[in-house]
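Our consortium's second objective concerns turning raw sequence data into structural hypotheses that experimental partners can test. To show how far this objective has progressed, the report includes one record in full. It was chosen at random from the queue rather than selected for favorable results. The single chain below, 284 residues long, was entered without modification.
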Amino acid sequence: MNNLTIEEFKKIRDFIYESSGIYFTEDMKYIVDEKIANRLSRLNLNSIDAYIKYLNFDKKRESELNRLFDAVTINETSFFRNMPQIDALKNILIPEIIAKKEKDRNKSLKIWSAACSSGEEPYTISILLREILGYSYQNWNIEILATDISNEILEKARTGIYNQTAMRNTSSDIISKYFTKRENLYRINSDVRCNIKFLNLNLMDKLKMRMIKGVDIILCRNVLIYFDLKSKSQVISSLYRSLSDGGYMFIGHSESLHGVENSFSFVHLKNTIAYQKRPGITSS
């Protein structure tokens, strides 16, 4: 199949938007063209209309939806990505939250990787917590929630096996402590996995989003680029409600909440910004 016509692009673009909230402008058509052509070829379908019919009615529609979402979103990531944010978490925000909770005699901590992709982000958080807490880690009730829209990418995350590219920002000390190397692959050690819960979640699903509460830190990085303003506002409002009072959120370094949400306080950190939920302030 050749590149999509504008009419075909709009049909599949609108279907993706209605199904997930992910929105592609016409200047992003090149991202969709090759991916959709590959899916049609795999399914032996010869038109966008046939593909949309398959996505709506075929008994394998759910698995194909996951493959479609996985295909049109960019899953390139790595451990310890965006070091200014990682440093802020390690040196400022997580120690601050831990100190407050210890003072309140509340040794529970909940962190959410809201678009975890192949798992590098939640595993990075698990490693950070072990580095910060040391032997006292076992005295804490720690939950790391890792969600993504793609079941296929979640299965990859659960395996915890990575190539050298994913490790490019990871120090040799961290690798030796938390990974087992076999040939050119790195497997995350089982103790790093034990407090991570992987779940399939569409961030536009209001009902499921309402069920996630009491989160201390949310990482929703490089996700908002896929949403239009309406969808961004819905997602960010849901994330705001999921945070505990005083909780923090990070988004991608090239993303902004300008014109989307004004309930957060800006927290200026070294070379980065965090968004903090103000106590007693409901989402706008």
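The partners drew two points from this record. The chain has a mean pLDDT of 92. The two ends are 45 Å apart (CA to CA). Both points have been shared with the crystallography group to help prioritize constructs.
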